Amino acid sequence: MTVHDKRHAELSTLLQKHNYEYYVLDSPSVTDGEYDTLMNELKALEKAHPQLVTASSPTQRIGAPPKDGFKRVTRAVKMYSLDNAYTDDEVRAFAQRIVDAVGNDFSFVAEPKIDGASIEVTYENGQMVLATTRGNGTVGENVTLNVRTIRAMPLSIPEKRTLTVRGEIFIYGADLDAVNELRASRSEPTFANPRNAASGSLRLIDPRLTAERPLRVFFYDLVEPYFESHSEMLSHLDGIGLPTHRAEKRCDDVESLLTYIKEFGESRQKLPYETDGIVIKVDEIPLRDELGFTARFPRWATAFKYPAERRTTKILSITADVGRTGALTPAANLEPVPLSGTIVSRVTLHNLDLIKEKDVRVGDTVWMQKAGEIIPQLLSVVLEERPKETKPWKPPTHCPACEEKVVKADGEAVLRCVNKECVGRLKAGLRYFTHRNNMDIENMGDALIAQVVDAGLVKDMADVFALPEKRKALLVLERMGKKSVDKLLAAIEAARVGRSFSRLLSGLGIPLVGTVGAGTIAEKYRALPALLAAKPEDVEKDLAALDGIGPKMAKSVADYLADDFYRATLEKFLSLSVIAKEPEKVVVAGGKLDGMSFCVTGTLSRKRGAIHTEIEANGGEVHKSVKKGTTYLLAGDKVGKTKTDAAAKKGAKVIDEDTYLAMLE
Ligand code: AMP
Ligand code: ZN
Question: Fewer CB within 10 Å of terminal CB in the chain, N or C?
Answer without folding.
Answer: C
